[in-house]
């Protein structure tokens, strides 16, 4: 079926707005009905005049005509409002749907598309479709309805006239569609020829120095001539084909008008129809023309919508590699985290983590250190299930992390990195991530907890201050990120070099805040300075994706042969370089 994908998307997204869609359709039907009905009043009027009827009848006909015309306008306005409103609701639903879908996809997808591409996908295509939903779908419907309505009305008036105009309509639609699509193709080709010519000229100009001394000028002239000739011919054909469609539409008008009189006048003479009815035929013929032209224009719009629908379907067809089959719910409290022989590769067999096993007891914290590229960030992503590991296990309170529902799992864990993405919104919204269910008290409490209450006092509207006017230092930004992370009261916290972009003094300040925050939580601190790890319980050192040292921090310090003791003596730079 040629319109299968269009009807599918209409059904899916208009479905939830059945009553409004029904209302819009009803108004369209009413409007079309009145359009067809109103000329009949004029016909009666004209016939009354020719029959020398009394003035009362004429006045009544005139008043009814005006009232109907007014009603028609009112219906039209209401309908435009309702259909545009409907189109925007539907478009926004679609946009939301696609955005949700993209969020559900795994990181492999997000790494592949650039932000610009995503915007084009989520916004450009959807906007293109809003035209399809509002103007197109309803216009096509109303035009088709009008066309059929008028033809039926003609049939009722006179069988032969009905048949004649139905045939004319069908021929007009088919022939104009053919010619139009041909001319569109010709124009595209013509534009391609032009760009080829421009490319050629540019190339020759750039190569002038080469061409002149090497006697290439003759060749350039000849090539230029050939390419221009091709362009000229192409444009000629395109213009000719376009004119053809104009000629064709005029011809249809001419043929139609002639038909009205050739068929109609004899009927008036032999008194099969009244002169008023002849007028009605003329009027109806005009009513047929508009939908014919509109439908053709809309078919072209349809081709543009086609491309968008295809791209949207393509996007929807991408599924996440992370399967979400777990059913375990999140819970509160102290969590125990265990890695069991875990191996992981982003691509094929290129292992980034190998044989990782450790056991972080509930409420304890572990310091994770290692060179850049040793796999620290990757390890934290696996806990959060941004990627799935190849083999081995991650257990949370003895439950395999895959057995949790993905969303539930992520509710229990928070990762703070050095990248703080703030939004042009209020302080509160930045901390709650726009979650309106979080109370102001909770926001204030959290701000207090991270040590930003002095800063907040300086803000003119408290937590409702717009962030861009608040003026944040890097340290304050980082603390805000902590507030954001801790407002949900997570059970497992991972700090991935969270304060590494700060100067040491500020970092110390933050270390203190962090100490408070990590109390009664299970945490992993990825650090680039050993000072940050003064209060952790255990230490894990990664190198090239493998554990080279893991143990209780105090024990490692006591052991003079441990890598950690060595690093404490010579400085962590030794490891990092
Ligand atoms: N999204 C990714 N796709 C492919 N390889 C990646 C990706 N992210 C990181 N890697 C690679 O994995 C290894 C470990 O990186 P990472 O976990 O970021 O290390 P660290 O946080 O210790 O600096 C590096 O070799 C890095 O190039
Ligand atoms: Mg990292």
Spatial extent as radius of gyration: 37 Å
Calculate the terminal CA-CA distance, rounded to whole Å: 65 Å
CATH class of the largest domain: Alpha Beta
The biggest sheet amounts to: 6 strands, mixed
Q: Any idea what the CATH superfamily of the largest domain is called?
A: P-loop containing nucleotide triphosphate hydrolases
CATH topology description of the largest domain: Rossmann fold
Helix content: 55-70%
Would you tell me the overall average pLDDT?
Answer: 86
> Can you tell me the residue ranges where pLDDT is under 50 for at least 5 consecutive residues?
none
Q: Strand order across the biggest sheet?
A: 6-7-8-3-9-10
Number of domains: 3
**How many distinct beta strands?**
10
Order of helical and strand elements:
HHHHHHHHHEEEHEEHEHHHHEHEEEHHH
Shape: elongated
CATH architecture heading of the largest domain: 3-Layer(aba) Sandwich
Q: Which secondary-structure class do the elements indicate?
A: alpha/beta
Structure description:
It is a single chain. This protein has 577 residues and is α/β, with parallel strands linked by helices. The chain folds into three domains: 1-147 and 304-321, ABC transporter type 1, transmembrane domain (ABC transporter transmembrane region fold); 159-272; 337-422 and 472-576, P-loop containing nucleotide triphosphate hydrolases (Rossmann fold). It is 65% helix and 10% strand. It has 19 helices and ten strands. A six-stranded mixed β-sheet has the order 6-7-8-3-9-10, with helices on both faces. Strands 2-1-4-5 form a four-stranded antiparallel β-sheet, with helices on one face. A hairpin with a 2-residue loop joins β9 (538-543) and β10. α8 packs across α9 (275-317). The longest helix is centred in the middle third of the chain and has 53 residues, at 217-269. The radius of gyration is 37 Å and the shape is elongated. It starts with a helix and ends with a helix. The model has no long low-confidence stretch (mean pLDDT 86). Bound molecules: adenosine-5'-diphosphate and magnesium ion (MG).
